[in-house]
Design brief:
- The N and C termini lie close together (6 Å).
- Helix 8 packs antiparallel against helix 10 and helix 10 crosses helix 13.
- 54% of the residues lie in helices and 13% in strands.
- It is α+β, with helices and mostly antiparallel strands.
- The chain folds into 2 domains: 158 residues, Butyryl-CoA Dehydrogenase, subunit A, domain 3 (Up-down Bundle), CATH 1.20.140; 170 residues, Butyryl-CoA Dehydrogenase, subunit A, domain 3 (Up-down Bundle), CATH 1.20.140.
- The site of one zinc ion has 8 residues, from loops.
Length: 422
Amino acid sequence: MAGVSPGSGMTLIACPDCAAIQRMPSPPAKGWVECWRCGHVLERTAGRSVDVALACALATLLLLIPANFMSVMTVHLAGITSSTHLASGLVTAWRQGWPLLAIVMGLLGIVLPFVRFGLLAVTLGAIRFGVRDPWLGPAFRLCQKLDLWAMADVVLIGAGIGYGRVSSQIPVHIDVGGWCFVAAAVMTMVTRASLERRAIWRRLPGTDSEGGTIACTSCDLVLSRDAQGGRCPRCAAPVHWRHPFALMQCTALLLACWLIMPAAYGLPMSAFWKLGEAHPHTVIEGIAVLLHNGFWPFGVVLVIVSIGVPFAKLIILSWFLAAVRWRWSWWLRTRTRLYRIIDEIGRWSNLDPFTVMVFAPMIQFDSIAHFDVRSGSTFFLASVVLSMLATRVFDPRLMWDAAEAGDGVRDESKHVPAEEVS
Ligand SMILES: [Zn+2]
Ligand SMILES: [Zn+2]
């Protein structure tokens, strides 16, 4: 770990996790820069090339077209051939009486990846060619927001698990659309890794206010106290000292999650009909079948993302709410890091519903064998989406405020430089 090198250009930054306002080298020379107070990574030197990010976003967008419009997999059983598209699972869910499930999965798995990568390609393209129009800030802010909800990568792993489940019983052929989808989903992950958001914000017009005390939580611009209640001049996000109603909204969403949990885990997600006999599976029974059939890597992944992560998330968020309520100051850095982790990995809990989405349309052989979507899928998806929203509306800065008000964790941040790690 090295100190900030003297003479480098310094910029003000407000940490989005703990609210500490500090100076950091702009751009950092190498490695990454951490918040001195909570350890949040403020900027990495990797992923600063707009050209690379633009190329990745364009490649992903182009690959998504054949992935969504061409057949992804074909199965043959008893002389019947069945080809599926990515949207086939949505049609199956809709026809079987689960329109809400079909709409939400269609948004997360198909519509939002297109919107995100289309908008990202346009925004990065404009920045690359020197455009500095006011719409770029709000457009890039929307791209950042959609990063959580555009789930082509989650659908890919779900499809892999679905493929593993079906191919053990019936031969499955992956079509051109399927391979394009694999490439698109991998490019989604590469784009996430190759894009350092701070490097993009730095290219957009916006000046930090010297002596500012509040910050935009979308682009981290430091603003004077009068900006409260207005819009950020760079990205047009509403500016608040702290997110209003964060605790109330988080508590309400968490309560809804706890209430849905028994239905999400107790009701069957799907039922497999073989020779007129139904075999319904809850989340846990589905995992047991995978483990029993020897697909233990998939089984272990699902144990972690479908059982471990959702429960851990609800318990951790409940703990954070209690910490703010009773002004606990212990483990502040750990709690802040935990918050980042649950915010990042929460989307992977959608794996199981996406497995059903890919799996269901492949097995539709009338009386020989077919696959029904059941009510557990809707409840499970609802619990995951609500818990993702609960994590997003929680403002981790409230934990630092509460600790400061409790037993005096001092914020001496203005004069302390961020830490440069090489
Ligand atoms: Zn911080
Ligand atoms: Zn902003």
